[in-house]
Design brief:
The complex is a heterodimer of chains A (about 210) and B (about 210). Chain A has about 210 residues and is of the alpha+beta class. Chain A is built from 4 helices and 8 strands. Chain A has a 6-stranded antiparallel beta sheet with strand order 5-4-3-2-1-8, with helices on both faces. In chain A, strands 6-7 form a two-stranded parallel sheet. In chain B, helix 1 runs parallel beside helix 8 and helix 3 runs antiparallel to helix 8. Chain B is globular and about 65 Å long. The longest helix of chain B is centred in the C-terminal third of the chain and has 31 residues. Classes of the chains: A alpha+beta (about 210), B mainly alpha (about 210). The interface between A and B is medium-sized, with 30 and 32 residues.
C-alpha cells in the first residue's frame, strides 16, 4: 500500500509540477515567439521584394481558403511586386516559404524559407541562400520544375539538392500550388493599383 | 570523502575516453548518425545535448531519494521532456536566430538515450555534485565525438570544414555517400573499431 501510494504521489507531483512549469513558461514565451514570427514574416517580404518600401496586406476568401497576399509598394508609390506565403508538407513537417512574384505573373522575384524542420545537413539546406537564390527570375509557366544533379536547362527549372530531393520537391510543389491559388484569387489588374488600407514600413534594422 | 576532488575528476574524465559516447558507451547513436554530416551540425547537436544532460542530471540526482523505483523511468522521461521543452521555448522567445539554427535538433534530444542512460546509471545513485561532473564529462565527450564524425564526413562529402572549402573540386570529387546515412554508418563503424582497437592495445599493455 505504501509503495503504491508513493508511486502514485511521485507521478502526480512530477506531472503537476511539470505542467505548471510548462504553462508558466508558455505564458511568457508565447507572445514573444509570435512577435518574432511576425517580425520574420515582415522581413521576409522585403527580402523577396527588395525594392519595396512598404507593403499592403490584401485578403480574399476563396471557398474555405483564406488567401493573403502582400502587395509591395515602391519609392514612387507604385506597386513593385506581390509576396505571399506558401505552406505545405515537406519531408518531416511543414515548409513555409515566402514567395515574391512579378506583377505580370511571369517570373519569381525570389523566395525565402521561413519555417522548416527538414533533416539537418540534408533537407535543411533548402534554407541556404545558394538554394533560395536559384528561384530569382525563374519563370512560373507552365510550372516551376526541378532537375537532379545538373544545371537547369530551361527558364522554369531549378536544380534540386543532392540527397534532399524530397525537400527540394516539396518547396517547388508548395510554390506552384500557392502561385496557382493567388493567380486565381487575384487577377493581375487588381494588383497594379496601390491598394488602400493597412500599410507597414520596414524596420530600420537593415 | 577525503579523495573527493580526485573522484570528481574521475567522473569528469571517464566521459572523455573510457566511457566516451557514442563509441564506448554505445548510446545516442541516432543523433550521431543523423546530424553529423557537417562539423557545425555535430557541434550544435552536441552542445544542445550537453545542456539538457546537465539539467536533467542535476534535477534527477536532487530528487533521487523521493522517487519510487518502480516508476523512476516514467518520472525521468517527464523531467527530461520538461527540460527540453522549456529550453526550446526559451530559445525561440529570447534568441530566435539560435533557435532557428538549432530548430530540428532540440526536440530530438528527448529521445536521446544518453540522457536517460546517465539518469539511470549515474544520477539516480549519486549526489548532485558528482552528477554535474558526470554530465559535463559525458556531454563534452559527446561533443568531441560528433565533431570528429562531422570533420570526417564533411571533409569527404563536401570537401569543406565549417562550410569552408578545403579540397577544391578540381582535384577532389566529393563523395556524396559520406553525407548520406550510409556514410554515417561507415564512419561510425570505423571509429568504433578504432577506439576499441586503441583501448584494447592500451589495456593489454602494448601502449602504456
Amino acid at each position: 500500500m505504501n509503495t503504491v501510494l508513493k508511486m502514485f504521489l511521485n507521478l502526480v507531483i512530477i506531472g503537476s509540477v511539470s505542467g505548471v512549469v510548462l504553462a508558466v513558461a508558455f505564458h511568457y514565451a508565447d507572445p514573444m515567439i509570435q512577435a518574432n514570427k511576425e517580425k520574420e514574416l515582415k522581413e521576409a517580404i522585403f527580402v523577396v521584394l527588395p525594392d519595396a518600401k512598404e507593403y499592403r496586406a490584401l485578403e480574399k476568401t476563396v471557398g474555405s481558403d483564406k488567401i493573403v497576399v502582400y502587395q509591395g509598394v515602391g519609392a514612387n508609390n507604385a506597386p513593385v511586386g506581390v509576396a505571399f506565403k506558401a505552406d505545405g508538407g515537406g519531408f518531416q513537417g511543414n515548409i513555409g516559404v515566402m514567395v515574391g512574384l512579378e506583377l505580370d505573373y511571369l517570373k519569381l522575384r525570389g523566395i525565402k524559407i521561413l519555417d522548416q524542420v527538414e533533416t539537418p545537413g540534408l533537407g535543411n539546406r533548402i534554407a541556404e541562400p545558394k538554394f533560395e537564390e536559384q528561384f530569382k527570375g525563374v519563370e512560373i509557366a507552365p510550372r516551376i520544375e526541378y532537375i537532379k544533379n545538373r544545371k537547369p536547362e530551361k527558364p522554369n527549372q531549378i536544380q534540386s539538392i543532392t540527397g534532399a530531393t524530397i525537400s527540394s520537391d516539396a518547396v517547388v510543389k508548395n510554390i506552384n500550388n500557392a502561385i496557382g491559388k493567388v493567380i486565381k484569387a487575384f487577377p493581375k489588374e487588381e494588383l497594379l493599383v496601390v491598394a488602400p488600407g493597412q500599410t507597414d514600413k520596414p524596420k530600420a534594422t537593415h | 570523502m577525503a579523495d573527493a576532488p580526485i573522484s570528481l575528476w574521475h567522473e569528469f574524465k571517464k566521459g572523455l575516453w573510457q566511457d566516451i559516447p557514442p563509441f564506448r558507451l554505445v548510446l545516442g547513436t541516432c543523433p550521431t548518425l543523423a546530424v553529423t554530416n557537417s562539423v557545425e551540425n555535430g557541434i550544435a547537436m552536441g552542445l544542445a545535448t550537453l545542456f539538457v544532460l546537465l539539467c536533467s542530471n542535476v534535477i534527477i540526482s536532487a530528487v533521487r531519494k523521493q522517487i519510487a523505483g518502480q516508476v523512476r523511468i516514467a518520472a525521468y522521461v517527464v523531467i527530461i521532456a520538461l527540460v527540453v521543452t522549456v529550453a526550446d521555448m526559451f530559445l525561440a522567445a529570447m534568441f530566435p536566430p539560435i533557435s532557428k539554427a538549432l530548430g530540428p535538433y532540440v526536440p530530438l534530444i528527448v529521445v536521446n538515450c544518453i540522457i536517460l542512460g546517465r539518469a539511470e546509471a549515474f544520477a539516480q545513485k549519486n549526489p548532485v555534485l558528482p552528477s554535474v561532473f558526470d554530465a559535463l564529462g559525458i556531454g563534452i565527450g559527446f561533443v568531441m565525438s560528433l565533431a570528429t564524425m562531422g570533420v570526417i564526413r564533411e571533409l569527404l562529402g563536401f570537401g569543406s570544414i565549417f562550410n569552408f572549402k578545403i579540397l577544391s573540386e578540381a582535384i577532389f570529387e566529393p563523395w556524396i555517400v559520406m553525407i548520406l546515412p550510409a556514410g554515417a554508418f561507415m564512419v561510425f563503424g570505423g571509429l568504433v573499431a578504432l577506439v576499441n582497437f586503441i583501448s584494447h592495445r592500451r589495456s593489454s599493455g602494448i601502449i602504456s
